[in-house]
Each structure stands twice: as structure tokens, then as C-alpha cells.
Amino acid sequence: MDRTSPSAGDGGYDPAAIETHSSVVFFVGDRVYKLKKSIDLGFVDFRERAQRKAISHREVDLNRRLSPDAYMGVADVFDQSGAPCDHLVVMRRMPSERRLSTLISRGEPVEGLLNSLVEVLVQFHSQAMRSPQADEAAAADSLDRLWTINTSALLGLAGGGLDSATIETIDSLAATLPRWTSRAVRFADCRRQGMRRARRPPHRRHLLPG
Question: 38: helix, coil or strand?
């Protein structure tokens, strides 16, 4: 769900709000603020403020490893009495015209960008910490289980932000799960073996959501 104002905001950016099944993201000036919903989707449980605070800080810590300039921190939200009532992930807003999907839609060359991205990811995963728990989380049955939980939670939101066309798209994606799971497991196997270079860069459709 995307709500965008037609008037330009601070610094030439249009104010906007985008709602997902687990968060509401506000675009204000050159900043982006993500608010976790107080909701239990099965695979995530954000019902308690302490949980939302912890996962927000965890999100910043993890994503700063690859995007330290984009993830600025976590801001506290206070109620009228001055007590904290929620928390926001604060990010730097990037120019929409430089978004990869925008470049592709304009027909601009992106092969060099994608190759650079792949090199960064390969280097990152070659040095990332490994553990039996991480290996288990990347196993095919674990991915299948997470997909099923996620899909079931989304379908439960029908009529409250999801239309029938979106639900049909989710169902069609679910049918392709074995193929994507196989690719993910192969990648995880390469990572466990200490892969340092990709055999070839993936096609952009393997990196970008539809």
C-alpha cells in the first residue's frame, strides 16, 4: 500500500508512506522512518514494545554491515506524558532516480552495478560468521517452513490491505518455492565451504523482487 503526496517535501523529496504486512514506512524529507506494527504474524512477533525496540536495534546493527551510511539508528517515540511508546528505525533517504528498478525500467545499463554488488556480497559472505544454527536456518525444510508461515499470515490479512490479485500472486509464488529453495540451499552450501568468488554473477531477476 503506497500513499504519496503530490506536493514536494523538504529538499525536493515528496513525502510518502508505504505500508507492508509488518511495518509502516514514512518518507519525510531526506529521512525514512520505519515503524514496526504491533502484530504477531507467526514468523515475527511485534506485539510488545520491548520486542519492537529490540528488533529495530537488531535491524540497524545487521544492515549497517552493508549499508553503514544508510542506517542512522533508532529513534524513540514518546507519548503525551513523556513516556516512550514506540521506536522507529531511522534511515537516510536515497534518490528514487538511482533505484535499481528505476534504472532498469529506463533501459540504462546496470551490468556493472550488478557485478559490483555481487562482488560485495561474495566478499561479505566469505567473511561472515558461521554457526550450526545459521546452517540449519538455511536448510531447505527451514526455508519451506518460513515461507508457509509467512504466506499463511499474509493471507490472513485479506481485506485489510491485501486484495484478491495480491493473494493470487502470493499463491503463484508459493508454487515456485521448490525451485528458489534449491538455489538458496546451493548458495548456503557454497558459503559453508568458504566460497570467495561467484562462478558468475546472477541475473538481475535473481536479485530483485518482482
Answer: coil
